[in-house]
Design a protein that fits this description.
binds iron/sulfur cluster; binds alpha-methylisocitric acid; globular; Aconitase, domain 3; 6-stranded mixed sheet; Aconitase, domain 4; alpha/beta; 21 helices
């Protein structure tokens, strides 16, 4: 039996574990990336591990999330990260150089290599044939120190693409269609592998749009083959030497097959408030809109921007609409300036933003009350835009641009004839905003610059014999990390200060959670299905840790968040019978008798609800390493104990 492409790369990087679906395996990591909002913690953790220089082939730190700097906090964090990079062997992509995933694809990603990044959209690298996985900061810190990355050996879903996209139907519509079919839970424990004739019709940036938003499926990652189109892209980035051809074996076996005929796809939009709430433009109708935002790591490539410029040329943004555009990288912005397209965008009335995450993470451009905003982004969770009742629709750049002109949601196929949009033969290359580290022999000359906002991370204790604690919060299905630890202009600057940021923990669900949890000292959270979907932010585990949360008991978990809980020493448990969720209420007193022993030896866990007298069976789906980590009180303690 042959192997799929993802299996081949994983097998090539296997460090330990039997390569069998569902088994816990460890893989060698070639590259890492961090961004500033998760990076400060990751580098504090890296420092705590005491490793002198990174052991990866390439590690890059990007500054792209917190670029408003409405106070000293973010600027201090940027300086801290910059100094850590210089000393410890990490490349530092300065603010202004662009969004991590866009820049990494352009300048550093290599087919066949493994990458983990402290950002859930790291799978963007799958567009260039990498196994690129989003992870918590601690996992990235361990990988920088040369440690392996641990995952459950995934199932592989084949998405067979046939046909060719019709004019003005785009890569965004492909991934929206996959989300419609599989849902935001459909990818958990799976890698999505794209195959078929249709693959050859998609450029690398288009492939990257698709793999990027595979994060919204909950998938471990997504991947495209590395072929002639990949070679052309790398050649245009003047790094053809990084090209290797890679594809699945003809007799590879998949766990599931999804077929999509590109020729039959129509323009789609994800409606509020979930990326899988997908409808066609016809179904939604010509809805009046208030705002359009173009950019983010999903849709900010040169190709996307050139399409937008073509649509906006000679037109004016509708008087009732605000249009903002953030090109994804310095390279993209610079090339738009060079070829005149920037002038077209400005002329039409677009508000040009810096090459950064910006409105995607609620850093400005929040829509008006109940405002309808079309965004080319990947997430439309409630409140993420910064406006609680904002109505966010996720669309393609083509649909966004024509709608901005018309003032209502418009089917881009109404634009008329579509010219051929081609990637340039050579991109404008200037890596002057990437600061290399100093040579190892000079590292002692580099001083680490810390600001007063950088507080140590909370210390977790080894697990107790028995946990007796009250329920500090009970929440429903599909809780996102944006609910657990919101971002946005007010909260994001506190990412290096866990005590301060904890005040906002779960505030969107229950404003009293913070005070209640602190008062209880020790507590347990109860949740529904797909708990913790979305971001890789480990703050969604570190804040609960700081507030005394000992266990989270839910119907099911999203992958990265579950790993972050384990890394923080918080026990992730699921109900054996989902109906038992109804047997627990806020403030009930729960007892996990002998839990340390049961976690250690994979025993049967029966929790007692002291308030009602109910006995509830729970499941701890954990690898041996996870169990040891939890006993030790998290990854940092575990790493120290095992060195
Ligand atoms: C996001 O899109 O939610 C973020 C902001 O990029 C996060 C990372 C973070 O919270 O810092 C992610 O996707 O992991
Ligand atoms: Fe940045 Fe948005 Fe991409 Fe997250 S999803 S990395 S906030 S652009």
């Amino acid at each position: 039996m042959g192997y799929t492409l993802a299996q081949k790369i994983l097998k090539d990087h296997l460090v330990s574990g039997e390569f069998k679906k569902g088994n816990s395996i460890a893989i060698k990591i070639d590259q890492t990336l961090t961004q500033d909002a998760t990076g400060t913690m990751a580098y504090l953790e890296f420092e705590a591990m005491g490793v002198k220089r990174v052991k990866t082939e390439k590690s890059v730190a990007y500054i792209d999330h917190n670029t408003l700097q409405s106070g000293f906090e973010n600027a201090d964090d940027h300086r801290f990260i910059g100094s850590i990079c210089k000393k410890h062997g990490i490349y530092f992509s300065r603010p202004g150089n662009g969004i991590c995933h866009q820049v990494h694809l352009e300048r550093f990603g290599k087919p066949g290599k493994t990458l983990i990044g402290s950002d859930s959209h790291t799978p963007t690298g799958g567009g260039i044939g990498m196994i690129a996985i989003g992870a918590g900061g601690m996992d990235v810190a361990v990988a920088m120190g040369g440690g392996a990355y641990h995952i459950v050996c995934p199932e592989i879903v084949k998405v067979e693409l046939t046909g060719k996209l019709s004019p003005w139907v785009s890569a965004k519509d492909v991934i929206l269609e996959v989300l419609r079919i599989l849902s935001v839970k459909g990818g958990v424990g799976k890698i999505i592998e794209y195959c078929g004739e249709g693959v050859k019709t998609l450029s690398v940036p288009e492939r990257a749009t698709i793999t990027n938003m595979g994060a919204e499926l909950g998938a471990t990652t997504s991947i495209f083959p590395s072929d002639e189109i990949t070679r052309e892209f790398l050649k245009a980035q003047k790094r053809e030497e990084d090209y290797v051809p890679l594809s699945a074996d003809a007799d590879a076996e998949y766990d599931m097959v999804v077929e999509i005929n590109l020729s039959e796809l129509k323009p789609l939009a994800a409606c509020p408030h979930s990326p899988d709430n997908v409808k066609s433009v016809e179904e939604i109708g010509n809805m009046k809109i208030d705002q359009v935002c173009i950019g983010s790591c999903t849709n900010s490539s040169l190709l996307d921007m050139m399409k937008v410029a073509h649509i906006l040329k000679g037109k004016t943004v509708h008087p009732d609409v605000s249009l903002s555009i953030a090109p994804g990288s310095k390279q993209v912005l610079n090339m738009l300036a060079e070829n005149g397209a920037l002038s077209v965008l400005i002329d039409a009335g677009a508000r040009i933003l810096e090459s950064a995450c910006g409105p995607c993470i609620g850093m400005g451009q929040s829509p008006n009350s109940k405002g309808i905003s079309l965004r080319t982004f990947n997430r439309n969770f409630e409140g993420r835009s910064g406006t609680k009742d904002g109505q966010i629709y996720l669309v393609s750049p083509e649909m966004a641009a024509i709608s901005a002109i018309n003032g209502y949601l418009t089917d881009p196929r109404e634009i008329g004839e579509m010219p051929e949009f081609k990637l340039p033969e050579v991109f404008t290359i200037n890596d002057n905003m990437v600061v290399p580290p100093v040579p190892e022999e000079e590292m002692d000359t580099v001083e680490i610059l810390r600001g007063p906002n950088i507080k140590p991370f909370p210390v977790s204790e080894p697990m107790e014999e028995t946990i007796e604690a009250g329920v500090s919060l009970k929440v429903e299905d599909n809780i996102t990390t944006d609910h657990i630890m919101p971002a946005g202009a007010k909260i994001l600057p506190l990412r290096s200060n866990i005590p301060a940021i904890s005040k906002f923990c779960f505030a969107v669900c229950d404003e009293e959670f913070h005070d209640r949890a602190l008062e209880m000292k020790k507590s347990i959270i109860i949740g529904g299905a797909n708990y913790g979907q979305g971001s890789s932010r480990e703050h969604a585990a570190l804040a609960p840790l700081y507030l005394g949360v000992k266990a989270v008991i839910v119907k099911s978990f999203a992958r990265i968040h579950k790993a972050n809980l384990i890394n923080a020493g918080i026990i992730p448990l699921t109900f054996k019978n989902e109906a038992d969720y109804d047997k627990i209420s806020l403030k009930d007193e729960l007892v996990l008798n002998n839990i340390r022993e049961l976690i250690k030896n994979d025993g049967k866990i029966v929790m007692v609800n002291k308030t009602t007298g109910d006995e509830i069976e729970l499941v701890a789906e954990l690898s041996q390493r996870d169990r040891e980590m939890l006993i030790d009180g998290g990854l940092l303690n575990y790493t120290k104990n095992n060195n």
